[in-house]
Amino acid sequence: MPKHYRPAGKKKEGNAAKYITRSKAVKYLQISLATFRKICILKGVFPRDPKKKVEGNHKTYYHMKDIAFLVHDPLIEKFREIKVHRKKVKKAFAKKNKDLADRLLNRPPTYKLDRLILERYPTFVDALRDLDDCLTMVHLFAALPAVEGERVQVQRIHNCRRLSHEWQAYISRTHSLRKTFISVKGIYYQAEVQGQKVTWLTPHALQQVLTDDVDFNVMLTFLEFYETLLGFINFKLYHSINVNYPPVLDPRLEALASELYALCRYMSSGRVPGNSESAGLIEDKEDENNKESSKTDESEIRLAQLQHQLPTNEPGALMHLVQESTATDAEDADAKECKSLFRNLKFYLSREVPRESLLFIIPAFGGTVSWEGEGAPFDETDEDITHQIVDRPTQSHVFLSREYVQPQWIYDCVNARIILPTEGYFVGRVPPPHLSPFVDNDAEGYIPEYAETIKRLQAAAQNQVLPLPSIGDEDMENSLVEAIIDRSESNEVADKKRKLEMLEKQYHDELKMECEGMTFSNRTTDNPPDVMDKNDGKQAEKDAADISKALMSRKQRGLLQAIEIHQERKRDKVSLLKKRKKNADSSASAKGR
Amino acid sequence: MGHSDGDHESDLSADDSPWSEGSWSDDDEEGSLSFEDSGEGSDAESDEPDAAAAEESDSSEDEVAPRNTVGDVPLEWYKDEEHIGYDITGSKIKKRDREGRIEAYLRNADDAKSWRKIYDEYNDEEVQITKEEAKIISRLLKGKTPHTNVDPYPDYVDWFEYDGKGHPLSSAPEPKRRFVPSKWEQKKVVKLVRAIRKGWIKFDKPKEEPNFYLLWGDETDTADNKRQGLSYIPAPKPNLPGHEESYNPSVEYIPTQEEIDSYQLMYEEDRPKFIPRKFDCLRSVPAYEKALREGFDRCLDLYLCPRTRKKRINIDPETLKPKLPSKKDLRPYPRTCYLEFKGHNGQVKSLSVESTGQWVASGSSDGTIRVWEVETGRCIKVWNVGGVVHRVSWNPSPDRHILAAVVDHDLLLLNAEIGDEDIQMKTKGLLQIDESAPEEDTGDKKPAVKWVKHENFDGIMLIHHKAVSTVEWHFKGDYFTTVVPSGDSRAVLLHQLSKKHSHHPFRKLPGLPIAAVFHPSQKMFFVATKKFVQVYDLQKAQLVKKLESGVREISSISIHPGGDNVIVGSKDGKLCWFDTDLSTRPYKTLKNHSKDITNVTFHRKYPLFASSSEDCTAYVFHGMVYSDLNQNPLIVPLEILRGHSSSDGRGVLDCKFHPRQPWLFTAGADSVIRLYCD
């Protein structure tokens, strides 16, 4: 009898009925594998792991309900229509029926993904939760070469660029960026939008190479979904801060490839006046700075935008005012801190620094920024510039009124949330190590040296700057410190206890031996390996811990072993790091000598 | 006539060129007319050398009716006649008179035009052709066109548009359908018109609708905000970057060159995917070449990886360990090494404690059996038996100080020569053997056991047919059993000391016997084979129970003094506790040793049992058996006893409890016997 014998006339049950293999699903849906792939990506249907793999271990299983969900999707019908349309066009061309071909090409069947997005993400928060991959992908494609004839359409790359800039403009405008990190792979950003942490990676602003080892069909299908999703999310976000979407940009700035700046300007200028002082502040400052240069331009732009916006914004102005006030109340201390980090600082970017990234970060933390190039709000000779971001071996002309720092300084400041001393970041120096803000050093068990330095600086800054206002925070800090102290203390206490116990034990042993009439000479034979005793003590402790292992069930023993192996690995890692550090230090000191 | 024909042809060719069928038919009619006209024509007309007229007019005027009307018959028929034929009226046409040759020659010579004269045989006359005609003839002879002004190769002028016709010109007449509006076209047009009217065909481009709108409007409606269908399992987020991924990591995160080289030796799946690098400044960081690849991999993970909800166990490993009752409540038990008995030169293979607990005997691979005093650790007696001592065992009866020892292949019963005179005498008496005891000849088969007096010592040798592995006494001290693993049907032997008699009660055993033990109080007998423990009733001589250990290979067995519980040690480091009342399968299996268990043993009085193993440790357990049958035995591991060192890969070879005190003796491969006390 076969393994899964089912008598005739009896329905399938359990996993055999609940799950269906991929090839069977494709057959069941009567579509090609490529279409199946596409629809799975768009609908977010993924294989599931059944408890019992009835048809074999090496197959992929989909839940029958998921497949039934796909059967009734109008998208399948749309895909068929598109296929038919393609055939019609081909046939028209083959018959030299140009009329028909043109007419067909004019009206290809299209489909929309909006219902699908709502279906996958019923609430906005759901969408934000799944936004990481979306943003990373859109930013990746925005960095691809927009060249005609490549495998990716130029228009889509431009669309990705636009979407990514719109997102960044929103984040920057609302000061919701929290962490940044320059890695070898690109720059990581973490923002907090509506309480959700959204992390994404942007590649370095260099031309990416299209490689052959990826299937662009799959990626472009993902991108199709992500583009739509990000569009809707941007709409919602812009709507929440009363800015029209899609934004109308200054064509001059757009042509200069500084869309982000254009967007920022759009957002700050396009707001209903009187909503927020900070927006006005920035704008005013900017206006002062480039009064002569771009006043006329700006007024034109504003006029255009106002015309664009009036009908939507005017009636709800009062409502918006209310909303804004509540929103500012809800802003937590974190957001406030972020907003005011670079408040009174003015930055100027040299040619060689990653402009887009810094144009995004600095305004997000309340700073004003300009760059070398056309369309910049103010130029290098401005007296008020406090910091100039430079990334070159030497700086020839130096203004004494400002500090010249490497771009890493900005990122480190942002992560530490304080203005770090600039000495380490001067031009031509190797900056201190750039640390990831995403690592919990305590949990990892190893704290890099520079992290400790930053911690000390942070503590100092807090003492100086915030004596009163955030009592809660300090309490938190104190309790944390206390907890740390408690932990270390408890460790010490445990150590002491152990020692006492050892001593006691030895004493008891000796006493007993005396009682039982053991001669000293006999005792001495036992005693001499005193060093051994220590080892024995350790061994005894370990035994005491291990002895209950004998009673454990096999499963639990396996689990325990797995945990222990994991811990062991972690320890090894830390010890390796410590070893390397020690070696590096010793070699450095040897060199210094 | 000939020339006129040629003319006609040439005219035709000129006329034919317009190819239109209408004109062609007209021409035909004209032709027929001209024939009628030609009837009136005369010979004289033919003579008119009017080339121009001939050209412009049709053939009608050239046509000259022949004088002769015989038709196309061979002229030979009229050769001998007077006439050559008939004229139109039917009168005979007479032949002309033949001229003489000379006359003809002369006439020709006189006539300058003679070369233009041709004789017409049919009409029997001479015809003079005009100069033009002669010219034409000469041209024709040369293969040229008759007229000089005809260009045989004019530039071709295409009269038709061939583009898109796709067919060669056809001379077929225009069919009617070409002049009648098409029905099918009309139908098609009607269809199109209808489609356009009904809006099926649209010509204007579709309007651009705003792509984005407020998709998530009112979030308060909770019923609508539920995701339909199966529960959504969100994909795990990609790992966040650590310090090592930085473009400028601190020095300790950068592996040395040796470490990077060592990665090459690893398996590909173990190899780190990312090797940290340090860049001095941000501008020198290159584009990440694997960016697309990693994005693609993430995509693949998202739509191809099966997803399940896995419970992540985030527990303290300490909570996994079972809670043990306080050890203090379970005291006394052996904890620390109190004494070491040194003296052997080889591995101490076995030891045995005398029933009073005053003496302990040990056998070693150096060929000696020693008896020690427990309290002082003094060696009282040494027998050099000259062979490896595998096993020693004291007689449990307090009035018989007899030591049974397995030396090499055979069993040796020794008088321990301790205790008072009385007992010694008694023992001596027991160990007397009648040399003249009847040699029972069991035929050709070698007897299983032969009782022989030992020459050197005051004892008895039991010579077995094959190597003996263990010896065990009955609790009363008269019977004992030996196991001969390779003995087939005579593997387990029972011996009676008082009668000096042996027999082998078991014909067949399931597998190789390892050990055999007497029940501590009843007439029961336990035989441990490789995987099973057989329990026999000695009185009824039948199998009572068969315990399945489930371990790979049993190495030792011990019976609880109550008799209902059995522990079995195995060569894969497992210890099985059987509650024979409960089940034939182990009540509990403990995996405490990493190597073979060499011996397991129960304490006679305290609720203790111990196991010793090749990994140089001995475990002491608390094993409480309750008299209440509803309550399962309580097993608590108490102590790991260490101290023995490994030699030849062997650790602790034997362990025995003191019969009265909670003390444990262990015999190690390092030739030391240790005594552990509370």
Automatic annotation (TrEMBL), chain A:
<comment type="function">
    <text>Required for maturation of ribosomal RNAs and formation of the large ribosomal subunit.</text>
</comment>
<dbReference type="InterPro" id="IPR001357">
    <property type="entry name" value="BRCT_dom"/>
</dbReference>
<dbReference type="InterPro" id="IPR036420">
    <property type="entry name" value="BRCT_dom_sf"/>
</dbReference>
<keyword id="KW-0539">Nucleus</keyword>
<dbReference type="Pfam" id="PF06732">
    <property type="entry name" value="Pescadillo_N"/>
</dbReference>
<dbReference type="GO" id="GO:0005654">
    <property type="term" value="C:nucleoplasm"/>
</dbReference>
<dbReference type="Pfam" id="PF16589">
    <property type="entry name" value="BRCT_2"/>
</dbReference>
<feature type="domain" description="BRCT">
    <location>
        <begin position="337"/>
        <end position="427"/>
    </location>
</feature>
<feature type="region of interest" description="Disordered">
    <location>
        <begin position="570"/>
        <end position="593"/>
    </location>
</feature>
<feature type="coiled-coil region">
    <location>
        <begin position="486"/>
        <end position="513"/>
    </location>
</feature>
<dbReference type="GO" id="GO:0030687">
    <property type="term" value="C:preribosome, large subunit precursor"/>
</dbReference>
<feature type="compositionally biased region" description="Basic and acidic residues">
    <location>
        <begin position="288"/>
        <end position="300"/>
    </location>
</feature>
<comment type="similarity">
    <text>Belongs to the pescadillo family.</text>
</comment>
<dbReference type="GO" id="GO:0000463">
    <property type="term" value="P:maturation of LSU-rRNA from tricistronic rRNA transcript (SSU-rRNA, 5.8S rRNA, LSU-rRNA)"/>
</dbReference>
<dbReference type="GO" id="GO:0003723">
    <property type="term" value="F:RNA binding"/>
</dbReference>
<keyword id="KW-0690">Ribosome biogenesis</keyword>
<keyword id="KW-0698">rRNA processing</keyword>
<dbReference type="GO" id="GO:0000466">
    <property type="term" value="P:maturation of 5.8S rRNA from tricistronic rRNA transcript (SSU-rRNA, 5.8S rRNA, LSU-rRNA)"/>
</dbReference>
<keyword id="KW-0175">Coiled coil</keyword>
<dbReference type="InterPro" id="IPR010613">
    <property type="entry name" value="PES"/>
</dbReference>
<feature type="region of interest" description="Disordered">
    <location>
        <begin position="519"/>
        <end position="542"/>
    </location>
</feature>
<protein>
    <recommendedName>
        <fullName>Pescadillo homolog</fullName>
    </recommendedName>
</protein>
Automatic annotation (TrEMBL), chain B:
<feature type="compositionally biased region" description="Acidic residues">
    <location>
        <begin position="24"/>
        <end position="63"/>
    </location>
</feature>
<feature type="compositionally biased region" description="Basic and acidic residues">
    <location>
        <begin position="1"/>
        <end position="11"/>
    </location>
</feature>
<feature type="domain" description="BOP1 N-terminal">
    <location>
        <begin position="78"/>
        <end position="334"/>
    </location>
</feature>
<keyword id="KW-0539">Nucleus</keyword>
<dbReference type="InterPro" id="IPR028598">
    <property type="entry name" value="BOP1/Erb1"/>
</dbReference>
<dbReference type="InterPro" id="IPR015943">
    <property type="entry name" value="WD40/YVTN_repeat-like_dom_sf"/>
</dbReference>
<dbReference type="Pfam" id="PF00400">
    <property type="entry name" value="WD40"/>
</dbReference>
<keyword id="KW-0698">rRNA processing</keyword>
<keyword id="KW-0853">WD repeat</keyword>
<dbReference type="InterPro" id="IPR012953">
    <property type="entry name" value="BOP1_N_dom"/>
</dbReference>
<protein>
    <recommendedName>
        <fullName>Ribosome biogenesis protein BOP1 homolog</fullName>
    </recommendedName>
</protein>
<dbReference type="GO" id="GO:0005654">
    <property type="term" value="C:nucleoplasm"/>
</dbReference>
<comment type="function">
    <text>Required for maturation of ribosomal RNAs and formation of the large ribosomal subunit.</text>
</comment>
<comment type="similarity">
    <text>Belongs to the WD repeat BOP1/ERB1 family.</text>
</comment>
<keyword id="KW-0677">Repeat</keyword>
<keyword id="KW-0690">Ribosome biogenesis</keyword>
<dbReference type="InterPro" id="IPR019775">
    <property type="entry name" value="WD40_repeat_CS"/>
</dbReference>
<dbReference type="InterPro" id="IPR001680">
    <property type="entry name" value="WD40_rpt"/>
</dbReference>
<dbReference type="GO" id="GO:0000466">
    <property type="term" value="P:maturation of 5.8S rRNA from tricistronic rRNA transcript (SSU-rRNA, 5.8S rRNA, LSU-rRNA)"/>
</dbReference>
<dbReference type="GO" id="GO:0000463">
    <property type="term" value="P:maturation of LSU-rRNA from tricistronic rRNA transcript (SSU-rRNA, 5.8S rRNA, LSU-rRNA)"/>
</dbReference>
<dbReference type="Pfam" id="PF08145">
    <property type="entry name" value="BOP1NT"/>
</dbReference>
<dbReference type="InterPro" id="IPR036322">
    <property type="entry name" value="WD40_repeat_dom_sf"/>
</dbReference>
